[in-house]
Amino acid sequence: MGVRVLGPRDLSAARAVIARDPVVNVFVDSLVQTSGLDPRRGAEVWGYVEKGVLEALCHAGGNMVPVGAGEAALRAFAAYALRRGRNCFQILGPARAVEVLWEALEPHWGPAREVRDDQPFMVIDGPPVITPDPLVRAVEPVELPILYPACVAMYTEEVGVPPQTGPDGTFYRSRVAELIRTGRAFARIEDGKVVFKAEIGSVGTGVCQIQGVWVDPERRGEGLAAPGMAAVVELARQLTPVVTLYVNAFNTPARAAYERVGFRTVETFATILF
What we know:
- By secondary structure, this protein is of the alpha+beta class.
- It has two domains: 2-111, Aminopeptidase; 137-267, 3-Layer(aba) Sandwich (Aminopeptidase), CATH 3.40.630.
- 35% of the residues lie in helices and 30% in strands.
- The chain is built from eight helices and twelve strands.
- It has a twelve-stranded mixed beta sheet with strand order 1-2-3-4-5-12-6-11-10-9-8-7, sandwiched between helices.
- A hairpin with a 3-residue loop joins strand 9 and strand 10.
- The longest helix is centred in the middle third of the chain and has 16 residues, at 144-159.
């Protein structure tokens, strides 16, 4: 019984834990599929083992994300994290799991820069129920200089600080370029300027997750978000039949737009930001 760092030999058991709820676990599913649980190819994934059986996971990189964890596993992950030290910039996941982790970690890692404890986790598993914006399309690689400023603006507005770009300022830009290259960045571009955009940040088993939804502040209130999201859903469903996202409860315009498209809330997430 206890917590240990998982490796490639644990991949089958780890994916079985993820498969208990592939929709909610899409973010970690995507990362595990990419890394194969090799820490050299990504962040560590910790496993909670009970009576020789892998019962729960915790992705432990820039994002700390519990998967399938009950209270015993969560407290074990918190104790392990305290021994290892904080290297994440946020803790996120189902709200109750994040709450238990933070109860144990806050006396040592707090205070948080911000606690967002009510983030509806939304799903759509059919076509959008409104007409998509025909001008929303996949971004071309040559359009990176057009898309990148919009991504920085979205990140800064959403997270409250500029993206972590690294000493040479290339990490975040490389991530945006990768999303474009893999056909997972979408935008409506007018006169060389992004007026609406969104990306598919994670692709799991039959499920993907939209991130980075943004409308140019000068164009807000024009009704661009809902048709734009309908177009992104249509494009995303060419990859997977189920599309997810999560949003801050206080962002009522965004929630209303997603609901117009046909998204429904199935879970509540929470995020602790450092």
